Amino acid sequence: MYSPTPSDWREANRKRWDERVPLHLASDYYDLEAFRSGKDPLRDFELAEVGDVTGRSLLHLQCHIGLDTLSWCRHGASRVVGLDFSEPAVDAARDLAAELGLTADQASFVAADVYDAADAVPDTSYDIVYTGVGALCWLPDIQRWAETVAALVAPGGFLYLAEFHPLADILDDETGSRIEYDYFARDAWIEETPGGYADTTTPTVHNRKVEWQHPVGEVITALASAGLRVDFLHEHDTTLFERFGSLELRDGAYQFPVDRPRIPLMYSLKASRAVA
């Protein structure tokens, strides 16, 4: 339900994510054994749109257990830094980096709130600031996020964001064919939801979550007003999980049946900082 932002939103969300870290580490969804063996969790469109990262520094905001972060290191980034507000998630990411034989100069992780990133990360700027899917919904103030990001992008560098499309948030869960919610809602969405996307069966205690919906126009405007130039905005008709009961798994991604009109389920964008 939509409600005013509760004062404990950050703590409620942190407890939820802390509890789910061990579930995610053991889950088939993240498949850590395959990752250790070299499986790449990054999406093909991300690799194509970000391009060659060889020799570049990369900061991953809201990195969770660090699989995407460490994958950019495998793709040649000279230094990756991951930041997340969940200390258990950061501990897990550090353990994985050590297992892969990476030094702290190659891959490091910081436990901090994303809004405090500029003061928490080890370097003042990065060639690439990356934010993966399912991150922005946990933040109430997208303008503050954009200003934080812009402060961390080095001159000549860029932000790359891949995210679930907010249009999908307004549709019914069963079929994804009916509009049930307000696309322009600004209040928090507060819900008690056990389990999660990676484990739907293990009982959980911290089930309350507080999220926000950010229309694409709001995200673009926030980045532009923070001083970044938007180079592209791409919309995608696939998603990473069965968001609606009517979706089908085809070619490794969830899509609507071929006889249904398509809508955007994800989007990606690149926003650059001019060379000083």
What does this structure look like?
- The structure is a single chain.
- The protein is α/β, with parallel strands linked by helices and 276 residues long.
- It has a single domain (2-272), classed as Vaccinia Virus protein VP39 (Rossmann fold, 3-Layer(aba) Sandwich).
- The protein is built from eight helices and twelve strands.
- The chain has helices at residues 9-25, 32-36, 44-50, 67-74, 87-99, 117-120, 142-152, 216-225; strands at residues 2-3, 57-61, 79-84, 107-111, 126-131, 153-164, 188-192, 208-211, 229-236, 248-250, 253-255, 266-272.
- The strands form three sheets. It has a seven-stranded mixed β-sheet with strand order 4-3-2-5-6-12-9, with helices on both faces. Strands 1-7-8 form a three-stranded antiparallel β-sheet.
- Helix 7 links the parallel strand 5 and strand 6 (153-164).
- The protein starts with a strand and ends with a strand.
- The mean pLDDT is 96.
- Residues 59-159 form the Methyltransferase type domain.
- This is Class I SAM-dependent methyltransferase.
Write the layout of secondary structure elements.
Elements: E1 2-3, H1 9-25, H2 32-36, H3 44-50, E2 57-61, H4 67-74, E3 79-84, H5 87-99, E4 107-111, H6 117-120, E5 126-131, H7 142-152, E6 153-164, E7 188-192, E8 208-211, H8 216-225, E9 229-236, E10 248-250, E11 253-255, E12 266-272
Strand content: 15-25%
List the strand order in the largest sheet.
4-3-2-5-6-12-9
Elements, N to C (H/E) = EHHHEHEHEHEHEEEHEEEE
Output the CATH class name.
Answer: Alpha Beta
Whole-Å distance between the termini?
45 Å
Domain Methyltransferase type: 59-159
InterPro entries: Methyltransf_12, SAM-dependent_MTases_sf
GO molecular function, one term: methyltransferase activity
Keywords: Methyltransferase, Transferase
